[in-house]
Write a structure and sequence with these properties.
The protein has one domain: Ribokinase (UDP-N-acetylmuramoyl-L-alanine:D-glutamate ligase, 3-Layer(aba) Sandwich). It is 40% helix and 23% strand. The protein has 14 helices and 14 strands. A hairpin with a 2-residue loop joins β12 and β13.
Length: 358
Amino acid sequence: RAASESRDKQAKTFWTLPNSLFGMGNPLLDISAVVDKDFLDKYTLKPNDQILAEDKHKALFEELVKKFKVEYHAGGATQNSIKIAQWMIQEPHKVGTFFGCIGKDKFGEILKHKAEEAHVDAHYYEQDEEPTGTCAACITGDNRWSLVANLAAANCYKKDKHLDLEENWKLVEKAKVCYIAGFFLTVSLESILKVAKHAAENNKLFCLNLSAPFICQFFKDNLMQVMPYVDVLFGNETEAAAFAKEQDFETNDVKEIAKKAQALPKVNTKRQRIVVLTQGKDDTVMAMGDKIETFPVLKIDPKNIVDTNGAGDAFVGGFLSELVQEKPLDQCVKAAHYAANIIIRRAGCTFPEKPDFK
């Protein structure tokens, strides 16, 4: 048994060299609290929605900390997914690389410390004009939540100041799989396109997440500039519906949406696009090759669900952990379901010491 474990470890190390998974996005410190309906109403927040903070939300962050019992967790969608992928892989450390922008402040130090703890190779662009970004996760009963992101420093990421630097770009070149959440489309389209084009030219996998309905609606032009480079597209049923509407797909059927998204124009014709759409507790839908497959999620007793907020990020992290090891796609989905199932049992996007995934 020891010999076979050592062989497994060698095989894994061979496939997953450090920095073989690259992520770039908005590093945020999540401030989560269980709130009441009055709080949501006061700031006109909808349950299960994700928005960017406007002026009217500025006081929300202070009130949240003052009025409710808050917890702080390192967050930001892409960073969460890279962290989960690294946790699933375990060794070697630093398979996952992450780029994003933070402030030179206490919250920024927490994010650096948390990335280190998670064995992620985080290289932040640090600037002092804006403070580190935060995301208020307002949780109400029955596992519903509303997210309000104050990007602040995360919005200041600069291609020429960070991504283009030789020592940083070298890390992108080491990657086999690149993942960026759609949220970053509001920050630096040129950075995304540079990574996406590099992936297409070198036959690497470029993965993107629809991330939120508002991305599909209000950042449609940016999204569609990147879409031709997307090898793996992730989304949930709400985002898929918003995307379908904006693209005039004229269908609400998740399988049909997956098929139509797969058929959108693509630059790297060596790989056919894969589209993976989750539906909460219902089956996950995947368009691959010329077929549509469905995969049932792992059953869980509702009373064991603590926080569904990180489920989507965890799903992607699990999927990427197998993808970067060149495992079959059904194994990627299996790992995705496992990771999401673990994360929803805990507060924030946190996890036990080791995974128990076979």
